[in-house]
Specification:
The protein has 291 residues and is of the alpha/beta class. It has two domains: 25-116, Leucine Dehydrogenase, chain A, domain 1 (Rossmann fold, 3-Layer(aba) Sandwich); 139-267, NAD(P)-binding Rossmann-like Domain (Rossmann fold, 3-Layer(aba) Sandwich). It contains ten helices and ten strands. It has a five-stranded parallel beta sheet with strand order 5-4-6-7-10. A three-stranded parallel beta sheet has the order 2-1-3, sandwiched between helices. The chain has a two-stranded antiparallel sheet with strand order 8-9. Helix 1 runs parallel beside helix 10 (266-286) and helix 6 (139-152) packs across helix 7 (171-180). The longest helix is centred in the N-terminal third of the chain and has 23 residues, at 5-27. The chain is globular and about 50 Å long. 42% of the residues are buried.
């Protein structure tokens, strides 16, 4: 089975649109997301356009701030300070990667936790670890869990989730989310002994390492649910570029019970979960808890 991330994301956006309208009716507040783009990276521009379109689709306010490549770190920090103080802005996202002369960690730390819809701020990491309600959770990990549930159902209790990768953006937070779902969790990485054998233990296998088609069919337990986070551009035999994941899709599809494609899997869910975080931030700002 192929887990259709586009369809799942559309269903989530439909649900969010209803909740955005309910928030407007109850409080007069329209959630607002501001995306800051520094420079003219083509891929980043595509991502920003997609985010803006989908933000508007669910009834939220979408704003973009485009700054030149030469923008200094201090200028960007000053811009973020202004957005932090703007009550009409509920979510702030700085599109990564940033130009080399800007310290990404300093930029992430500048966004106040209440508006950090990427979920990267240390305060939100701590809230996630503690399982606090209303925490803004990194979007890709959220999407991974939702896609796993799409195939396995809402109760993941007792499943063995193996995460390949230990990044702060995906590997670590997704492991916490699966723990909160009562899974047994193993985090595997570059120093793991006999990685294929570890992966074969997984009921849910999440690949987030950035290595094209690294996970082979013999790494996967028959019937496992495979969530492929990787997005890698490779050159095909005909000389044309194409996108592939961290999983050898053609091989693993014959073994797995379900698998996410690349593209069209985790990517669409990441943007949908960004909108979900923006709604959470708007609700938190007015202390409303709407179902």
């Amino acid at each position: 089975m192929i887990i259709d991330g586009k369809q799942a994301a559309q269903q989530l956006r439909n649900n969010l649109a209803e909740k955005v309208q309910a928030l407007k009716s109850a409080s007069g507040i329209t959630p607002g997301l501001t995306v800051v783009l520094v420079g003219d990276d083509p891929a980043s521009q595509v991502y920003v356009r997609n985010k803006a379109k989908q933000t508007q689709e669910v009834g939220m306010i979408s704003n973009e701030i485009r700054l030149p490549e030469c923008t200094s770190q201090q200028e960007l920090l000053t811009q973020l300070e202004s957005l932090n103080k703007d009550s009409q802005v509920h979510g702030i996202l700085v599109q990564l990667p940033l130009p080399a002369h800007i310290d990404e960690a300093a930029i992430i730390a500048k966004i106040i936790p209440e508006k950090d819809v990427d979920g990267f701020h240390a305060m939100n990491s701590g809230r996630l670890l503690n399982g606090e309600a209303g925490a803004l959770i990194p979007c890709t990990p959220q999407g991974c869990v939702l896609l796993a549930k799409r195939h396995l159902g809402d109760d993941l209790s007792g499943k063995h989730a193996v995460i390949i990768g230990r990044s702060n953006i995906v590997g670590k937070p997704v492991s916490i989310l699966f723990l909160q779902e009562n899974c047994t969790v193993t985090i595997a990485h570059s120093r793991t002994v006999d990685l294929p054998a570890v992966c074969r233990q997984a009921d849910i296998l999440v690949a987030a390492v950035g290595r094209p088609e690294m996970v082979k069919a013999e790494w996967v337990k028959p019937g496992a649910t495979v969530i492929d986070v990787g997005i890698n551009r490779v050159v095909a035999a005909d000389g044309k570029g194409r996108l592939v994941g961290d999983v050898d899709f053609k091989g693993v599809e014959t073994v797995a019970g379900a698998i996410t494609p690349v593209p069209g899997g985790v990517g669409p869910m990441t943007i949908a979960c960004l909108l979900k975080n923006t709604l959470t931030a708007a609700r938190n700002s007015c202390s409303l808890k709407l179902s």
